[in-house]
Amino acid sequence: MYKKILLAADGSEHSQRAADNAINLASCNPNSKLEIVYVVDHDKVKSEVLSNWNSAEYKDKRKDRMKYVEKMAQKAGISYEIKMLQGDPGPVIVDYVNKNRFDLVVIGSRGLNGLQEFVLGSVSHKVAKRANCPVLIVK
User: Fold this and answer.
1) Buried b (16+ CB within 10 A) or exposed e, 78-115
2) What contacts 67, CB < 8 A, 6 or more positions away?
3) Beta bridge partners of 98
4) ∠17-23-29 over CA atoms, to 5°?
5) What is the pLDDT of residues 6-61, one digit of tens each?
6) Alpha-carbon separation of residue 54 from 27, 43, 51, 122, 133 (angstroms)
């Protein structure tokens, strides 16, 4: 069974469903560890800062996006860790997965709207093509 599982999370509905699956898989093996990765995209950070220039809350919003996953992992009693990475989500996740030798990556099928995904390609697609381990894409 999988011992080292990476969950790519962004707080979206798809990400929450992926979290449910990752936690279920991790709970099957008492020796498994779930690493929850949230990638801070530089383009989105600029717009967050500009739209919230007089508020310290914009940093807390990122942490709030991970609360669902954290609560579910605690409730399941599994070992987990949350990592914040920076950069373009697809390549950053692939690089992190390949360097740290994960047994499985669990990722939601969409984080972008349909038009953005059509033009840019989805993060999940990039990860599935380039990761050196199995990737579970959750719809």
Assistant:
1) bebebeeeeeebbebbbebbeeeebbbbbbbbbbbeee
2) none
3) none
4) 150
5) 999 998 888 999 999 999 999 999 999 999 999 988 766 555 545 555 555 555 66
6) 42, 19, 9, 32, 43
| Region 85-108 average pLDDT | 96
Using left for φ > 0, alpha for ψ between -120 and 50, and beta otherwise, residue 74 falls in alpha
Tokens 């560890």 appear where? 33
Tokens standing for 111? 């984080």
> How much is the pLDDT for 139?
86
Tracing tokens 């969950």 back to the chain, one arrives at: 7
pTM: 0.85
Element (H, E) at 93: helix 89-100
Average pLDDT estimate for 132-137: 97
Is residue 89 within 8 Å of residue 131, measured between CB atoms?
A: no
Token pair listed for 86: 């920076």
